[in-house]
Amino acid sequence: xxxxxxxxxxxxxxxxxxxxxxxxxxxxxxxxxxxxxxxxxxxxxxxxxxxxxxxxxxxxxxxxxxxxxxxxxxxxxxxx
Length: 80
What we know:
Elements: E1 2-5, E2 10-15, E3 24-30, E4 35-40, E5 46-51, E6 56-61, E7 67-73, H1 75-79
Antiparallel strand pairs: 1-2, 2-3, 4-5, 5-6, 6-7
């Protein structure tokens, strides 16, 4: 599984069914600003997303394969 960030404000999750299968992607989310960085947790079950509006969000995949945002940190919340 690979996650990609994009200036078009999207994050895509790429997977493939096997060594000979082609890669396919699903869109995780459309953000309010360009997405500059994605990073997997050490265990590989959480994805951190950093966007150009100074927000960082954490995402987790459910057992049904869907992705959900579990928390976020914004510039405003850090200042307070």
